[in-house]
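User: two proteins, same treatment. go.

Assistant:
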Amino acid sequence: MKYTLLVLTLLTNFFNLSISVCSEELSPEQPSPQEMAKALGIKLPRSPWHLADIWWTFDRVTNGFESLSVDVTIDRNIPDTYNLYIAPVGIAKINGLQFYGGLQSNINGWASKKSRTRVHPGKGAIFSRWSHDLKQPIGLNHVRAVVGGLCESAGYEGQFCSIRRPYEWTAGTYTYSIIKGDLESIEGEPHTWFHCTVRSHKDGANTYMGSLRFEGDQFTFWDRSAAFVEVYSTSKIPRSGIPKVKVTFGYPRINGVERKLKSAHAYSNAQKSPQCASVSVSGRSVVVDVGAMFVPKGRGLRESLIFKNE
């Protein structure tokens, strides 16, 4: 009996120690960007900072576009004291119209179409599109927000409109999707609503984030896809820290299919972002490992990415 109790005690201590070590390993904490830059003797560029950009180039465009889905795995919880943007859809084009989206640790936007008061509810998902020439304003009539969701129409990044919804994502795997939806006729011309959803692989829940309206009823998706990890600034947190985090982007699926790859690469611009991310390939996925800042080699780093079965 005493031997059994001793074994149980040792096992309990071992598991408690293991949990403690894992928790410490998965902490996002590290010195501030200012401290890391000072230690390296380098100057920080203005934010936002694209820590890594990933590009897939396919063998051709996709006619009859219906959906885009990308899996993303985040290895640790990122609190809303950071401004971290994990974008499985870094930029995309249908019929030449640009959109992007992903998960943010601190979304912000207007509480309603009638309000221009900016609110910061914490973690959430975002889906934005630009006007056809990025110069013509695009209003909130192109936005369908959910109850409790946010919206915005502005021109500080080119003329765009956007939906954002609070969503308490944590460490885990999610599928971010843009899906062709219902049609609407405006002055006799067809328009299509595209819906944004995020599915948690932990419980299978698929959450609708809102929709954006695009001109037309038939769409061609361009011959590439992109993803990025970014640290941005807000009025709530104008100087965000850079968290330690490992983000894994799955191979993009267009209309449910992995298109044949022509080439892929990762890129970082040392003139516009502090260098603190490494990029590697794991099977069919791309891993972005964000950590301590390092002295850049040259103005930027472009790395070819080689996938299995290509």
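Protein 2:
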Amino acid sequence: MAKFKASSIALDIGAHFIKLVELKKEKDSIVLTKIGLKEIPRDLKLDRDKTISSLISALLLENHIKPNPVNISISGQSVFVRFVKLLQVKEDKLKQTMKFEAQNQIPFSMNEVMWDWSLLDNDKNSSRKAVIVAIKKNLVEEIISKLNSVKLSAGLIDVAPISVYNCMIFNEDFNVQGLGAILDIGAKSTNFIIFNKGNIWIRSFPIAGERIEEAKEHGVEELLAEVERSLEYYFMQAGEDAPQEKKITQLFLTGGGSVMENIEASLVSKFSVKPQIMDPFRKLRVSKDVYQKLQVCGPKNQFSTVVGVALRGMTGLKIEVNFLKEIALEKKSSFRKRFYAGLSMATGALVLISFSIFMRQDYYIKKIKLDKAEDMIGIYRTYEPKIKNIQEEENILRGEIDTLYQTAFSRAIWLGIFKAISEILPKDVWVTDLSGIISIEKSGLGRMDMNGKALSYQSVNNFVSSLKALPSFSDVRPVSSSVENDKDTGEEIVKFSITMDVVLLTNQ
């Protein structure tokens, strides 16, 4: 079941007027809650785009409408429209079939246009008809840019003659039998829509209000000639689907140009059918605030297009096309990708946090054991001879290195450093403490300071030479040295301090 919107805002930007309506859903009714009309000045010296943006902003302000996505329609003359008959096609193959038909029907590269399609009937047991619409991408981009300039975005972009047709179908003010037509006369172009038993046919031509205003009766004659020519085109293309009696039985008039003098009388004289003025608000409820405003906005039927496009998404309509459908699908796909990427990142972060907690707990346990071992070693040092103390210190140092090795990652840098020192440490030299920092950058430098004791200066010099020979260190320098007597044996012992750079090799 389709999910309908609770409200809808629509704009119709014509050659001479900008129309705005807002519709809202209330229980089982659709209510006209806002309406606005602005005339576009015909002064050629004015910047038309800036003028239109200013008028749209004024309409929004006057009607207290906050920036929201709006529905908009494009003139029939700007749109490429084709009607195709489909053989029996399975539902799962319908989209693929329509894409194939579009590639054959649209006389431009598919990369240059935005397009959409809609079925005209739902009979799955017989051949079906569909409409394909296409427009150059740059025209859609211009519309979106104009809306963005007034902080609006496009909810959908419809085709003006289809919006008019949907408006008529919604209002149910027509006879389903016989051949019917809608004559939508604008300022610069006219849309002629023929409908017959659920199928439609559309033609747009440039004979409209401005031409009639300029050429008077001759302009009306040109309009009638185009209508007659359109009927001939329709009967040639419709073939067996056309009614036997090639005559219009009902005709609706809409658009701002339809109220011009002599239009109705000329149509009656030419086609022997009395035109019916379309009422786009026939099935809408009109709020009290809007009713009085509606009376001063001029002919109701000039709002047919904007009402038709405003109805999109609020109720099921006969034909639903949207030039932004592909963009909307791309955005939806992009949102899904971002969502799942974010979910993956969150999952990864959770794994890292859990692993970090585990490693930290493991580190604390090992540190407690190490602290206990150091306390015991301190007690033993008090009672053991000097040589044994030296051997135990070396064993403890190795034990500490082994413990750190177990708790560090496989790439732990200090392991290599301690191991290298222990391998070159002479028996008559022992290290009392180490301190330092390591750069986290590959091939970067760290710093290490070392304090120790030795039985002679020569032993210290030999130890320094051995450190310089190691690839893990550079700039090895003795900082200080001094001689003191051992409290127990009375022997002279050399105390020394050494500083050096730690070289982080890539293979460490």
